[in-house]
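If it is no trouble, can you show me the amino acids of a protein and the tokens describing how it folds?
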Amino acid sequence: MLLIVAAHATRQGTADGTDAPAPGARARFRAWRRSRPFWGGLLTALGGVEMFFSGQLDIGKIHVQLGIEGLQATIIPVLLVVLGVLVIAMPAHRIFYGIIALAVAVYSLVGVNLGGFFIGMLLSCVGGVLTVAWMPAKAELDAEPESPGELDGDAALDAAAADTVAGDDGAADAAEPADPAKGAIA
């Protein structure tokens, strides 16, 4: 899938049918990176890598491993790396992967040497939050309403709000002009 996106990015033409020079590799990478939650996935994967290597370390003469014979110290970091890669590869499922990454990162506090001595847990939590918070670029709408009476959702809400502010029945208010001599009590 990534190769298809890269191939499509290199075959760009202009409006008059001539081929424009292909953008450089850096510009193509920038466009690809901005189309997905890249930094969230990268931080989640880096947090998993840090947890994996911190689980294999000793602090002086103390070897810290919690969980069932250190199995969690291997599974949780590998799961975080896989979630980080999946977030980058499939941005459509970013919310699901981000929430799972957050839950696994918080659980790593108990399951993997205090979450990789807090560094891996913090990297993975920040990556999960960035993943969940990322939104794709808003596509511009090229289509105009077909008829003047047809309104899009926002315009219809604005029209309804204007009617509410004008009163319950705007036509009745226009038919009977207000008489200042009558006062507030009718």
